[in-house]
Every structure is written in structure tokens, then in C-alpha cells.
Design a protein that fits this description.
The complex is a heterodimer of chains A (437) and B (142). Chain A is an alpha/beta fold. Chain A contains 12 helices and 20 strands. Chain A starts with 9 loop residues before the first helix and ends with a strand. With 142 residues, chain B is of the alpha+beta class. Helix content of chain B is 34%, strand content 38%. Chain B contains 5 helices and 6 strands, in the order E-H-E-E-H-E-H-E-E-H-H. Chain B has helices at residues 15-25, 51-60, 81-91, 119-128, 136-141, and strands at residues 2-10, 30-37, 41-48, 64-75, 96-104, 109-116. The A-B interface holds A 380-382, 385-389, 392-393, 414-420 and B 6, 8-10, 15, 36, 38, 40-41, 43, 59, 62-68, 97-98.
Chain lengths: 437, 142
């Protein structure tokens, strides 16, 4: 095993399997205790006849019903709090307006635990205090920005909160501060190579970049290799979700062979999304996560909708936290564009609100050059049109604006004739994803 | 009230052909046509001899069509002819949303078709200026 100095938290990262499991069980009991103080879980436990005090091992967890995203939408977030709201210091949320967004509250300790997890991930891939880290993710309610920001600061790296966009400035910052590591959306990383070229800057020769963190968007191994090649760096895959605090759930080590899921902080199960039974070890299924690291708003057995599998065998890095494969896709029709999770239902709701009637629509995702583009095709029917050209222009504009505020991505809106979109037979085709790496 | 038909059309090959095909099939004669082209789509405005028949035929064919109230006026075919109409409307503060003109051989005159918001007021203003408005029968019988 690598020397202790190669681990951010050697006590936890170097635990043997049995030690890790007993740590999980201890923390699970504490988490269950905490849960019983939240209105949601106290009533759930009562209904299901679950007594946290009698919780022994991980197998007891299977008695707790799965938590769906819809449960988080249907209940006020405060129902999940185990401590008074006054003890909360931070709120993050998934994209979506008030009605649809999932809101997660954090105590000071929760923020620290999360920051430590991200620091662990970054340290594992070689980030040190001598590094200059440029965070090119959106800040704000989105967890990708602040999560990595805190992680890098905990390590002591010089952190540049560059935020998203402003491409030429990103390149200039890299040159000015001698950026060695950056956090970037994979599709944006590819796009940025064009900006480098325009500016006559060679990222391999003219920058000090050596590490890229690419996450927030499912991407292929091939895309990773292309990014590594273009920048002359190692690019590490990151996995996390707002409901589990954000980035830092699972992360690649130097081996770049699967992401270690931090089992001191999460209990991971992989289930068959149809039968809800655990899949045989190593088979693909839906990842279900229980937080062990968050005390203010712990969630039990949350269905992530992400498809993955556990990788077999021990990782040469010495960590016994199991590795999950690159996320393959979603169990439902959610898609990710520019780092944002979007459900077709959100688009549907905007259209319904603006047009007053349900309209046939299609979401078209494609790559233009290296950028992901989203087009929303909307059928213009007699119910929504009164003969005016300007009316259509205005409609197009309003749909675009409303969608932007709903999903945080600005799509192109195309008005099409009725009947030109695929008709729904059974389940309608709502998303056509033609993005290929 | 005279009507024209506004049709929403995607800007791609074959669409206009389908539209004219449907009208031919229905035996509808087109008097005038304008196309307002936007990015990716357009609105076709049709003045025909049988608007209701044309409207039904287009609906049948799956087009999104709208029967739009318009005013058709006889325009003096000489310098200032259009100006007279515009001035009459402007005096009443009536905005012309869209308009197109065409020459009618048989009448040896020109027609102007205007789309406005306040139709009764516009008609009143035009009549007061001594300009003749065609009735819908006259218009369709052209």
C-alpha cells in the first residue's frame, strides 16, 4: 500500500473491509437515531414498525422503504430535518423552480463533512497545497461549484473561484495564475480547446495544467482520453448528487479504474429498478444511497436513478472502499445538459403554463462542434395561435425564457407544424439524444 | 366581414407544395398570397375566393390555419393612393399590422388588404375619407 502521506484521511481510507463495515454499522445506528428526530422519519418508522434503537447491522437497513425523488418533492424539506432550522447554515437545491426543486439543508458540521470528502477526493488524485486550482463550475445553489471550492481550500491549494463561462477569461486566468488543476464540465473542456486555439495558446505547452476534474455530466472513456490528450493532463471522473450533498460521493483514484465510493460516509446498494431487489454482486442496476455523513438532513435509501455496477476485485491503490463503474445512464428519462439535470416533465410544465394546453413537443439534444445543444420543438396548433406572425415570435421568445428560468439552460425553441413530431403510442418520445462523444 | 387565411408553415421543402395541393384539390382559387418568413417558420396569408372551404381543406390536411378578419379597400391606382388610406387610419390612431396590395385586371384598379386591430373604427375612418371598402361577396367574386 502507498505510504500514509498519500492519503488525506489515512484512518478511514486505509480501513480493511471488515473495519469499514463495522464503521458503517456504527454510523448507520447514529444516523437512524438522528432520523427518528425528523418528522418525516419518525412517522415513517412508526408506520413501518422500525425501532432505530434495535438496529444492529446493515441488513436491517433493508426494512426501511426506498426514498424517491418524488418523496422529496411531495414533502417540505423541513420534514427531513433532525435539528431546528436555526442550526442550518446552508441550503443547496437541484435545478427547478420552487415547486419542483429538491432542497437540501446543511448544518455547519454537514458542510465540513462534505468539504472533507471532496478534499479527500482531490488529494487522492494528487492535489496538494502547492497547487493552483481553478474552479470553472457554476457557483450558487448548484453543488458542483462550492463543493470543489471547499475541498480545494481544505487542502490548502490556491483556489480561483472562476465560475462557469467567460471562456477567454478562463484561459487568461490559467496563464496569469499558473493554474495546475481545474474542475470543468467535460463538454465545456472540449469546447474550450477551440478558444485556446483562437487565442493562440497551447494548453499542453503554455499552461501548467496537470489535473482536470470532470464531472456533472455522464461522459465516455473515449471523451476522457480526448480531453487528456488535448490538455496533456490526467482527467478524473467525479460522481455526486445534490441529494447526497454534492460531489464527493465517489471519485477515481490515480488508477482511473472505477470510482471509489466512500463507504464510511454512504451505504451503497445496487438494485434492480423493476423488482427493487438487490442485483447479484457486480451486475448493473440502480444505485441507492444512504448518507452516513450528514446529520441535519440525513436521507435513507435514496434512489439515485443512476445506473452503475460495483467493480470486482481490490484496487491497487489500497483503498477498500468499493468502486463503481462510470455512470451508464438514468433509469428514467432525465437527461443532463451542461451539467444540469433536466426532466422532460419540467419542459412539459412550462409549455402547459405558457400555452394553456398540452402540446406535442420533442427535446432534441445534439452536439454542435464540441458543444451540447438543446432544441425544443413545439407543435403550433390552432388552440395556441391566432393568426399573427409576431405572436409566434413572442411565443418562441417566452418559451425560451421560461425554460431558461426553469431548467437553467437556454434552449433553442423551434415552432413546428402539428404532426411533424413523433406521435405518442404508449410512452411518448420526448427526448432524442444524438450526442456522441 | 372579409377573411383571409393565415397558415402556420414550417420553412422546409415540400410544405408550400402540400398547401397549394390541398387548395387545388378543394377547387379554391387564390387571389393573393404573401409569405412572412421568420427563422425556421413562416406565416402564409391567402386571399381566396372561398375562405371557408379553403380553411376546412387546410384543417383537414393538418395545417394550423386561422381565419383572419381583414379590410379590402379599393385603392386609387395613382401616386398617393396608398397614402390616402394610411393617412385616414393614422388620423384615428389605428396601426396597420400588415397590408398587401394587388392589381385586379377586371376592375382596372388596385386593392389593398389591411390587417388592423380595431376593425370597425378602421372601416369608419376609411369610409369617411371617401375610400370604398369591398364587401366580402365582392371580394370573393373578383
Amino acid at each position: 500500500m502507498a505510504p500514509e502521506k498519500d492519503f488525506w484521511n489515512p484512518q478511514v481510507e486505509r480501513l480493511e473491509r471488515e473495519e469499514l463495515v463495522s464503521l458503517q454499522e456504527k454510523r448507520l445506528r447514529e444516523t437512524m437515531e438522528a432520523c427518528s428526530r425528523s418528522p418525516y422519519y419518525s412517522s415513517l418508522f412508526r408506520r413501518e414498525g422500525i425501532d432505530p434503537a434495535r438496529f444492529r447491522g446493515l441488513e436491517d437497513l433493508r426494512r426501511v422503504p426506498f426514498l424517491e425523488k418524488q418523496d422529496l418533492r411531495d414533502n417540505p424539506s423541513t420534514y427531513f430535518l433532525t435539528v431546528p432550522l436555526d442550526d442550518m447554515v446552508r441550503v443547496h437545491s437541484t435545478s427547478g423552480t420552487t415547486g419542483q426543486a429538491v432542497v437540501i439543508y446543511h448544518t455547519r458540521e454537514d458542510i465540513e463533512a462534505w468539504a472533507q470528502l471532496v478534499a479527500r477526493c482531490m488529494y487522492m488524485t494528487g492535489l496538494r497545497r502547492s497547487d493552483v486550482f481553478q474552479n470553472m463550475m457554476g457557483y450558487g445553489l448548484f453543488t458542483g461549484g462550492l463543493g470543489f471550492h471547499y475541498g480545494a481550500e481544505r487542502i490548502g491549494a490556491l483556489t480561483i473561484p472562476a465560475g462557469a463561462g467567460n471562456s477567454r477569461r478562463q484561459v487568461q486566468l490559467m496563464l496569469d495564475f499558473g493554474t495546475t488543476a481545474a474542475h470543468i464540465i467535460p463538454s465545456y473542456a472540449l469546447y474550450l480547446t477551440e478558444v485556446f486555439e483562437e487565442m493562440g495558446v497551447d494548453p499542453r505547452r503554455d499552461t501548467r495544467l496537470r489535473i482536470l476534474y470532470i464531472g456533472a455530466e455522464p461522459h465516455s472513456e473515449d471523451l476522457r482520453r480526448r480531453i487528456e490528450e488535448a490538455y496533456g493532463v490526467k482527467a478524473y471522473n467525479s460522481y455526486g448528487l445534490t441529494e447526497m450533498s454534492g460531489p464527493g460521493v465517489a471519485f477515481e483514484c490515480l488508477q482511473q479504474d472505477g470510482m471509489h465510493l466512500w463507504e464510511d460516509s454512504f451505504v451503497a446498494e445496487i438494485i434492480d429498478p423493476d423488482t427493487l431487489e438487490p442485483v447479484p454482486e457486480g451486475e448493473e442496476g440502480e444505485l441507492v444511497l444512504t448518507c452516513l455523513h450528514r446529520r441535519g438532513m440525513p436521507l435513507l435509501r435514496y434512489r439515485t436513478r443512476d445506473l452503475t455496477r460495483f467493480l470486482p476485485g481490490d484496487c491497487p491503490c489500497g483503498r477498500r472502499h468499493r468502486r463503481i463503474a462510470r455512470i451508464k445512464g438514468r433509469t428514467d428519462d432525465m437527461f443532463i445538459i451542461k451539467g444540469v439535470n433536466v426532466f422532460p416533465i419540467q419542459v412539459e410544465q412550462v409549455l402547459l403554463r405558457l400555452l394553456g394546453v398540452g402540446s406535442n413537443y420533442l427535446i432534441h439534444l445534439e452536439k454542435t462542434g464540441t458543444r451540447d445543444e438543446m432544441r425544443v420543438l413545439v407543435e403550433v396548433t390552432g388552440e395556441i395561435w391566432h393568426g399573427d406572425v409576431r405572436e409566434l415570435r413572442a411565443l418562441q421568445q417566452r418559451i425560451r425564457e421560461e425554460l431558461r428560468s426553469e431548467i437553467l439552460v437556454t434552449p433553442q425553441v423551434e415552432l413546428v407544424e402539428p404532426g411533424s413530431l413523433p406521435q405518442s403510442e404508449g410512452k411518448a418520445v420526448r427526448v432524442r439524444d444524438e450526442r456522441k462523444d | 366581414m372579409a377573411h383571409q387565411i393565415n397558415v402556420f408553415l414550417e420553412n422546409r421543402p415540400g410544405r408550400l407544395e402540400r398547401l397549394t395541393g390541398a387548395l387545388t384539390q378543394a377547387g379554391v382559387n387564390i387571389r393573393a398570397i404573401t409569405i412572412a418568413d421568420q427563422e425556421g417558420f413562416g406565416v402564409i396569408k391567402l386571399l381566396v375566393d372561398a375562405p371557408d372551404k379553403a380553411f376546412d381543406a387546410l384543417k383537414e390536411e393538418g395545417f394550423t390555419a386561422y381565419l383572419k378578419d381583414v379590410i379590402a379597400v379599393i385603392m386609387n391606382d395613382r401616386p398617393g393612393g396608398l397614402h390616402e388610406i394610411c393617412r385616414a387610419l393614422d388620423r384615428e390612431g389605428i396601426n396597420i399590422e400588415d397590408a398587401y396590395g394587388f392589381v385586379v385586371q377586371e376592375l382596372k384598379t388596385a386593392l389593398l388588404v389591411v390587417e388592423v386591430e380595431k376593425i370597425p373604427e378602421a372601416e369608419e375612418a376609411i369610409r369617411r375619407a371617401g375610400i370604398r371598402i369591398l364587401s366580402d361577396e365582392e371580394l370573393y367574386r373578383l
